[in-house]
């Protein structure tokens, strides 16, 4: 025992002895030895809330999604077997170069397949002298010119993609998610909806395929998964939600896109967007992007549109659409007011094409189609989509607004001509450009100065007040007024007469039919102040 200088035990010795005694007492009391350890901090671990995973969906649908490689033939300028390259060295061709010329050695080494002794052009990614069944020998060779995405819609090898992906191709290759490459044949395409169908021969193999979703069950805010080939990175999966429905992006009369915020980029075109049940809700076809990359705004063709078009392409290689044969435009609030409609809806007939189903049924310029088979027509796009979805030869009941009242018309639809842009017909007549008019009368309150046209039909617009409503509505000098409130006019006095009658009828606007190089259209102008 330690003692201090007085011979008594030190304080440290006392504390140590008491501690040991306490430990001994604890051992005796419990009957087990006491283990003394240091205390350490534990790693951070948070119990996260459960969130949905897309892994099961991706595992199920990935075998049905393919990358689409599009190839086209590059023709050589000369007949030299230089693998598509041609040069002119001061009048000398490739074969005129000395054998030891660096360029000739280079192209002999790298420009020709060493396994191809006959000098046939090669096809990228394929073996053999002819480059596969889609690349027969001859001038030029098949080279990749585009890439996109697609998916199997049947077990026997039908693939859906975009028309703009395959439109410039001569040969097509479908690359599956396991890297297998299959030559594909173009079955049909539909530029109006930007859809196309390819077919691969699996030699009896049954492919994993997917089904269409029911559009009625797709809601804004639903989760979706996009699978495709962005920038050539096949098998890429992104996720987001349905941001909006019924988007019109100005690509045609059948615009009715789903907007999604899943990352969609160059190469995703033609690829599917799935719901959490693994069904295709849309086909990626366009993005909005100032930079060229994804900014979270992508557009997909809805399943309801694609389903019928794809079925027609698989069956006949083309789509047969109903045809009314009239040029139409939307009904604005001003136009509705000018013709006495209670609300701006329906499709305004600008001009029926001579001999078309609409012309034969008695449709006239200025008619507004308000209903089709008893269902209200929202706008011009709505009418185009509905008519285009019907079979040629179908009889439809139209309700048209004419001369301030509704009346029925029965029309037997024709077949949309191949060269027509949509379910309506363009009026291709050309306006006559006026020479110096004999007389002019200013309709100052309208911002128009008019004169007689050369053919005596309508009035030539010779000047526009840049601060007028007419200028705001896009009316230009050189165009022609053919009618006002559906009454043909050929002089300023006739225009004023129609405007006065409209004022007596309590109208504040009049409907002007304007003819230009681009066709005919209707514009509503205010008539307050006209005498």
TrEMBL record:
Primary enzyme class: hydrolase
Entry keyword Repeat: yes
Positions of transmembrane segments: none
UniProt GO molecular function: serine-type endopeptidase activity
Ranges of residues in domain PDZ: 310-404, 446-502
Biased composition (Gly residues): 128-139
Domain of life (superkingdom): Bacteria
Reaction catalysis annotation: Acts on substrates that are at least partially unfolded. The cleavage site P1 residue is normally between a pair of hydrophobic residues, such as Val-|-Val
Keywords, sorted A to Z: Hydrolase, Periplasm, Protease, Repeat, Serine protease, Signal, Stress response
EC number: 3.4.21.107
One biological process term in Gene Ontology: proteolysis
Single GO cellular component term: periplasmic space
Annotated localization: Periplasm
InterPro entries for the chain: PDZ, PDZ_sf, Pept_S1C_Do, Peptidase_S1_PA, Peptidase_S1C
Positions bound to substrate: 71, 164, 194, 267-269
Active site: 164 (charge relay system), 194 (charge relay system), 269 (charge relay system)
Region of interest called Disordered, as start-end residue ranges on this chain: 105-145, 420-439
Family, per entry: Belongs to the peptidase S1C family.
Protein name: Probable periplasmic serine endoprotease DegP-like
Organism of provenance: Rhizobium leguminosarum
């Amino acid at each position: 025992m330690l003692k201090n200088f007085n011979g008594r035990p030190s304080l440290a010795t006392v504390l140590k002895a008491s501690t040991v005694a306490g430990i001994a007492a604890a051992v005796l009391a419990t009957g087990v030895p006491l283990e003394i350890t240091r205390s350490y901090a534990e790693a951070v671990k948070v119990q996260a809330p459960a969130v949905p995973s897309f892994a099961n969906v991706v595992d199920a649908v990935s075998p049905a999604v393919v990358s689409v490689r599009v190839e086209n033939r590059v023709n050589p300028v000369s007949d030299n077997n230089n693998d598509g390259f041609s040069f002119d060295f001061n009048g000398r061709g490739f074969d005129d170069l000395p054998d030891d010329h660096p360029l000739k050695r280079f192209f002999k080494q790298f420009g020709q397949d060493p396994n191809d002794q006959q000098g046939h052009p090669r096809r990228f990614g394929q073996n053999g002298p002819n480059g596969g069944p889609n690349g027969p020998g001859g001038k030029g060779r098949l080279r990749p010119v585009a890439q996109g995405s697609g998916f199997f819609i049947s077990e026997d090898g039908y693939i859906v993609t975009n028309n703009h992906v395959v439109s410039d191709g001569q040969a097509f290759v479908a690359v599956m998610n396991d890297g297998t490459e299959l030559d594909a044949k173009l079955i049909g395409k539909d530029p109006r909806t930007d859809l196309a169908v390819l077919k691969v021969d699996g030699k009896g193999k049954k492919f994993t395929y997917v089904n269409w979703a029911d559009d009625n069950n797709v809601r804004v805010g639903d989760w979706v998964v996009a699978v495709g080939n962005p920038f050539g990175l096949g098998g890429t999966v992104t996720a987001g939600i349905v941001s909006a429905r019924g988007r019109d992006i100005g690509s045609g009369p059948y615009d009715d896109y789903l907007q999604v915020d899943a990352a969609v980029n160059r190469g995703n075109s033609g690829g599917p967007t799935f719901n959490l049940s693994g069904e295709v809700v849309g086909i990626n076809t366009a993005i909005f992007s100032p930079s060229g990359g994804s900014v979270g705004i992508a557009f997909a063709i809805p399943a309801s549109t694609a389903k019928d078009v794809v079925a027609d392409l698989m069956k006949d290689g083309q789509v047969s659409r109903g045809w009314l044969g009239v040029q139409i435009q939307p009904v604005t609030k001003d136009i509705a007011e000018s013709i006495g409609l209670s609300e701006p809806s329906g499709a305004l007939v600008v001009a029926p094409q001579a001999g078309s189903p609409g012309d034969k049924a008695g449709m006239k310029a200025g008619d507004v189609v308000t209903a089709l088979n008893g269902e209200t027509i929202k706008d011009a796009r709505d009418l185009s989509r509905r008519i285009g979805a019907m079979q040629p030869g179908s009889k439809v009941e139209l309700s048209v607004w004419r001369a301030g009242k509704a009346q029925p018309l029965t029309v037997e639809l024709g077949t949309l001509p191949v060269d027509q842009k949509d379910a309506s017909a363009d009026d291709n007549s050309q306006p006559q450009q006026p020479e110096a008019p004999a007389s002019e009368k200013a309709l100052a309150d309208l911002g128009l100065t008019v004169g007689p046209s050369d053919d005596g039909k309508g009035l030539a617009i010779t000047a526009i007040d840049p601060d007028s409503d007419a200028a705001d509505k896009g009316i230009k000098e050189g165009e022609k007024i053919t009618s006002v409130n559906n009454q043909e006019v050929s002089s300023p006095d006739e225009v004023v007469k129609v405007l006065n009658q409209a004022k007596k009828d309590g109208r504040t606007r009049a409907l002007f039919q304007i003819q230009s190089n681009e066709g005919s259209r209707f514009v509503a102008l205010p008539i307050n102040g006209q005498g």
